[in-house]
Amino acid sequence: MVQTLTPKVPEAVKIAQATNKRVTAEGIKGMLNETLFAGKPYQISSICIYKNVEKQTTVETIDQQFQSTLSHRWVPNDTRRNWNGDGNLNDIDFTYLAPFATANGFDGPINAIPVYDAMLSKWENEGYCNTVSLDISVYDLSTGINPSLILDFGLTPGDPLSDVQVLGFVPPEIMEAVLGSPNVLGVAFAFVFIDENGNPIKTKRGKDDKAYSEVWFNEGYPWSNSLNGINIQSVVLHEFGHTLNLGHFGILQSFTTNGETELVYQPVNTMNALYIGEYRNFLGPNDKGNYCEAWGSWPWN
Q: Which domain holds residue 147?
């Protein structure tokens, strides 16, 4: 049995980044697809990055994004993604990597697995639609299969182990090496199935067929169950929203009065694009509505 795991950035990725540093999500996606996923039946379609934002000294609109759902979607009864072999193709399977499920807490280490469970339960049970089952398992170290499609743990490469692999808290230097920035709280990589010509396959409603999603969190931040550090529930709930096909939603503005700057999101949702030091560990009306847009007719969509 494998006792410990140490993630590394694959050499091909290091070389590609050193040769031509790619700091945009599209550039990083292209680099990973060219190096790691050439010839595979799936490639990365989107990289949803959640960053921490610092207060501004000017009055301005900082960010506005209104993407209710992403350009890809899970396909019901899809035999291509029976990754865990359970035969249930109308649920979405999540796997946690227990060795990396401990966050560096502001007041001490935080076991993130109960947080994962609670935030998945919010998406599954606290919205306007409760149509899809989100199943959970823990990665079995004894399989010897590499738990990431991107990072190299020195284990046997293979296909995904489930629909969504929650890799957990990875070192900040890996965040910077792959994403070009250490200022990333969390990231969700989404993969889609492609045809023999490398084009995304579209089965339902003109959206790309989703194959797999992988989630990382940044070990370098001080995490917290409150606002003393980065609120862990808010970031986990946000990244899990991306795995369930939700995009960023809301407009962020800064208001400065007598030298004091306040950041305000309108409307307030967990899928606001930037973390501004406020609780987002709840589903706002737009979160719930957009989730229904993605899942309201499942599994018939």
A: 11-54+71-247
Any domain includes 66: no
Q: Which two tokens stand for residue 86?
A: 């359970």
Residue 81 counted as domain residue: yes
Contact between 37 and 192 (Cβ < 8 Å)? no
Residue 257 domain-assigned (yes or no): no
**Rounded to the nearest 10 degrees, what angle do helices 232-243 and 113-125 cross at?**
50
pTM listed for this prediction = 0.90
Condensed to tens digits (0 to 9), the pLDDT of residues 138-183 reads 998 888 999 999 999 999 999 999 999 999 999 999 998 899 887 8
Count of structural domains within the chain? 1
Query: Band of the pLDDT at 59, cuts 50, 70, 90?
Result: very low
* Percent of the chain predicted with pLDDT > 90: 69
Tens-digit pLDDT profile for residues 195-234: 999 999 999 778 999 999 999 999 999 999 999 999 999 9
